[in-house]
Every structure is written in C-alpha cells, then in structure tokens.
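Sample 1 of the test manifest.
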Amino acid sequence: MARKAVGIKDVAREAGVSVTTVSHILNDVEFARASDETRERVKSTAERLGYGANRIARSLRRQQSEMIGLLSEEIATTPHAGRIILGAQEAARKRGLTLVLINTSRDELDIQRDTDALLRQQVDGVLYATMYHREIDLPRSLRSVPTVLIDSTSQDGSVPSVVPDEEGGAYVAVNELIGHGHRRIGFVTNSDDVPATRGRLAGYRRALAEAEVEFDPRLVVAEQSETPGGYKAARSVLDRDRADRPTALFCYNDRMAMGAYRAAAELGLRIPADLSIVGFDNQELIAEGLYPALTTVALPHFEMGEWALGALAELMVGDADSAAKDSYQPAVLSCPLVRRDSVAAPRPAGGSAGD
Amino acid sequence: MARKAVGIKDVAREAGVSVTTVSHILNDVEFARASDETRERVKSTAERLGYGANRIARSLRRQQSEMIGLLSEEIATTPHAGRIILGAQEAARKRGLTLVLINTSRDELDIQRDTDALLRQQVDGVLYATMYHREIDLPRSLRSVPTVLIDSTSQDGSVPSVVPDEEGGAYVAVNELIGHGHRRIGFVTNSDDVPATRGRLAGYRRALAEAEVEFDPRLVVAEQSETPGGYKAARSVLDRDRADRPTALFCYNDRMAMGAYRAAAELGLRIPADLSIVGFDNQELIAEGLYPALTTVALPHFEMGEWALGALAELMVGDADSAAKDSYQPAVLSCPLVRRDSVAAPRPAGGSAGD
DNA sequence: TTGTACGCGTTATCAT
DNA sequence: ATGATAACGCGTACAA
C-alpha cells in the first residue's frame, strides 16, 4: 500500500472547507454549487498536496471497481497477444480504468474457474481474447457481466466482438501482386478450417475475379500452418513447368512464407526476381529477418484491443436498460499491407499476357 | 461489478451465526475458537452459497489491495515480455494476488508519471520489467513501495532483481559445440556494450579455456544484433580459407543466427554438415522455422517473472523492520540449452586436432 | 453555500 | 464459544 496518508480530509482542512465541498468540486457534481474562488482554492490545494482519491474506498462506495479483466488464452505466448494487451491497456488508461490480467487455458473447466475468479475480484467488465480468430460460445459465468470478445465471435451474437478483416487483408495482398503484373498466383494455405482460412481464400478469389484471372484450384495447396507446411506446399505448387508455374505466392501466414522462401531457394528461384511472395500476420521477427524482407499484411491487434476496450466502456455505462440489445455484428478491422522487398514484377515469361 | 449479492451477512444468517463467527472461521483466525460443528456448518454454507469475500471491502479494511503492478517498458512488444507476464501472473494467482498492467515508455518523465499513477491505485508492490538486460536507476517514486526488478539491476543494489545467466548460457552453448568436437568456433556477437554482450563473451571464453583451445580474437566479430548484422558478421568470419575457417558459429541471438544461415547458404555451406550453429534466446518463431531447426539457449523469462513475484511477496510481508536491508545481489537464473538440429560433428578437415 | 452523518462489506477489538 | 460494533476512506442525502 502506498505510504502516502493524504486523504480528502487533509485537503479539506488545508483549504478550510468541508470534505463535502472538496468531494463535490473534485468530482464535478452538478447540483452542488461553490464559489469560483473556493473551487480554485480547493483544486489547487488538492494539486499541491498531491491528493488522489483512494480508489479502494471510492470503489466500495460507488459499487464499481473501475477494473476490467482481460481474460486471455495462453496470454502473450504469441507476440500478437502482446499488441492486443497494449491497445487495451492504453485505451483503459485514457478512461481511468485499470486492466487486470488473467490467463487461462483453453480447457472448458479452467475457463469456468478463471472467470469465476475474475468476477470475485469485482471487475466491472471483461475482455475475452482468444489466441486466433474463431467462434466460441461464451462461458456461462460471463453472461452476468459486460463482455466483449477479441479475435472471436459468439455463436449467437449476444456480445460485441471484434475480428480482423481476413478477407480484406487477403484481397490487398493478392492485389499487390496483381498490381505488379502477376496473373498466376499460388496460394499456400492452411489446412485447418477456421475463419481465417475461409476469409483469406475468399479474399484471394475476389482479387483474382476482379482482375479477371481465372481461379485455378491447382494453385492452392493447403498444409499445416507452420514453416514446414509452407515449405511442403510451396514445393508442391512450384514443382511444375516454367510456363505453368506461378510467378507469385500468397502465403497464409509469415511462417508458411518462411517455408516458401526455403522452397524457392532450393529450386533456384530468386525472390523477388523469379518469384514474388507476400505473407500474412506481419510477424516482425520473421518478416524483417527474411531476405529479402517479406511484404506482408498486418493484423490489427493493437486496434482490436483498443476498439474492444472502447466498446466495453460503452457497454458498462449503458448497462441498465440497453441490456436488451442482443444481436451484435462483429466489428471487422482492416488489415493493412506492409510493403517490404519480396514483391516485384514477374519476368517476361513466354510473351502472351493471356492465361 | 458482479451482480451477485451474496455477502458475509447472507452466510451468517443462513448458517445461523454472527458475521464475526463467519469471518473468523473463513479467515482461520488463530485465537477465535468455534466448535468444530459450527466450523463445518459455516464452511459448507459458504461453499453452497458460492460466497467469496468482496475484495474491495476487504482491501479497505485491511489497508492492502492485494494488487501488484507490473510496470513494463513497451509491454509484450516482444514475445519475451509475454513469458515474463505469464510467470508473474501464475505466481500471483497462487498467492491470491492480482496483477495489474501498466506499460510505460523508456522516457524518464513518462516513467515517473506512470509509476505515480500505479501507486495511486494502491498497489501493494511493483514489478519493474525492462525490455532487455541492463542497468537502471530506480524511479524515485518507487522507493516507497516494495519493488523488484526483472531483467535489470539497480546501480546500488537497493532492491532485489533477477537476471538471466548470460555467461552460463553462452558457456553451455559453446560447450555443446565443443562436445561435438569443434575447436574453431566463431562468435557472431552484438556491437552494443550491454551486460548480455559482456556475459556471453565471458561464457564463450570460459568454455574455450576449459577445453584448452586458444582464444582467437579474429573469430569474434560484432555487428548490430539484428538479422542483417548476423549476416554481415557471419560472412566476415566465414570468408577465409577452408583450413582457417571456423567449423561452428555461436551467435549472440537467434536473429543474428538467422542471418548466419543465409551467409552459410550463400557460401555453399550446409548446416550442420559443413557448419554448426547455435543461437541464443530461443525465439521459437525463428528457431523452429529455420531449416534445419536451430539449437539455441533459452532465456528463463517465465522463471524470472515467477521468481520476481515470489521475491516481491516476501518483501511485502517483511516490510516493517527488514526495510533496512539495502544490498541485494541480483538473482541469476540459468539459461538451458535447447537442442534442435543445427549442431553436428565437424567434418574431418585436414587431420590434425591441434590448433 | 457548506457541514454532518450514514452507508458501502469486511475485519478486528472487545464484550458477553 | 460466540456476538455486537467500530473502523477503513470516500461519496452524498439532507440538514443548516
């Protein structure tokens, strides 16, 4: 506990007024009127004494803790989670809210236990962050507390949620390739059927369609979403005649792109001269470490954390009546392209630009 | 705020005793004695009602919040920070403590402001985590609160701190190489003069000395601690006659090792057949993504977070008198080797094993 | 315009 | 062996 003993009484005594007046002035109470002169005096002495209301006493009185709990699966095991936390934290600070952290496993029982623990700490609301974009059903104990989901959506839309625009991200990625003149673009994708997989495929197809290049299923190959999977998939999609071979690869994530780099190297394909690559996730460790540096698409983790906290704050003030609102659409935040050095125009292959 | 209205009074009424008795029993108060029978009854009804003490009221009464603040520079921008948080969080939970997060910049003024904010939230103690191992002087406002440092040490040893055993880590890394028969081992290191640089160099030299191989300054080359730096350094150290060239490289961190992989590839050196490499940091994204997977040394981030929270908890109970203790030695936690596929025996070069 | 006194849910002290 | 009650620091209805 802080050693400082400066309380509201000290301020009152020092300023020669009652605690009521101090409280009124410092909390900007509507109806309470004080002379401008005392207002000033109270504020300045409070400042001078370094007074700040004891949050615990205030919480007890107001029946709200001003703490919000961030419940996260396998917290920050991934750099992504860190950005979410950061975004939420800064937004919380701006509103005078405090962020408390609870990490939980993906086990149903653990989640139940951990949320209960969170609630016992009287958090005013909770942010529930999953490790990657997917659908969940809300832990039962969270139904009684304002909650917003990060990187996942609830089945029934009963709570607000925010997710990345997977499709839009894939679209800009593929469009970057198309803009450089590529027409045969491979898609090294993930074999898990999660929203990200579906969304990125949709974005890939949409970009192709808009550019009027026909979708060729032989150019999309799915593997596990790790580096070795990326390698395998890239080998397979690249292993064909020069004329038939894609001139560019869109990879499901940066790890798979890392595998694709190796495949390209083994095949004697230089990046980006012989093969352009764009990834997804903007894992800086990888994207900046690869040579040449990887052009990729950033997931808006910081922004999601920020948005979620804002939504939660609103939910918390309007709790009384608007609790009836029971159908939220997920907010989808856009995924910006970050250009580095892995994209260039294709080499003039055989001549014709048609397919 | 949680909706649940079950308070101590409810338990008391339900169990047919006074709140005093309930409090005594649930808090295991020494001197207060109650019949075993009521004990049982109280405990079971508390359980049945799902009672948990209101932490805010308890804090107000006990004059301690049971919250500890984690002040971190650029929180979780790095995956490392995440592991620290995780370790601290789990240790906190075990003790019934709550972790609140504050991120701060490295700017002196911001730190001051942020710590003040933290203290106003009546945290009982603070963990101060820096982004990488270095020396700092403690923000003034933290002198009044139990504090422990993570990944940094204070100039004057006035607070406990925990740091990784850089030297020991480097020692096991180089020893792994020596154990496989390498004698000419290059060191691709960092040009910044930070504790990690000094410690890892010391470990390198100690391992060499113990194996009775002479230290050759031409084999250590320093560059910026990023991937391109690793590439440059590795090129430079590898660019010599076959007989003179090191058969293995110890890299300052995994990013530099990533650069070294590229250098090796360009030189036509296969890993680990022609060149063994070991890194430092165990950044899984890189270490597992490289091909072949990188043998490296893990920084004990989780353990540091855990240790720090334990130390802080002790500091908090013994605050009264032992505040006099004013000279702490940093705790140094060991860095284990994690073996993957980048180390093998050197190829029989010219024949002689001497230097 | 300002001050007094009570309540928030616990724990701790002191009676019984 | 158990219960009544003050106190923690603040906010606020109500009296002055």
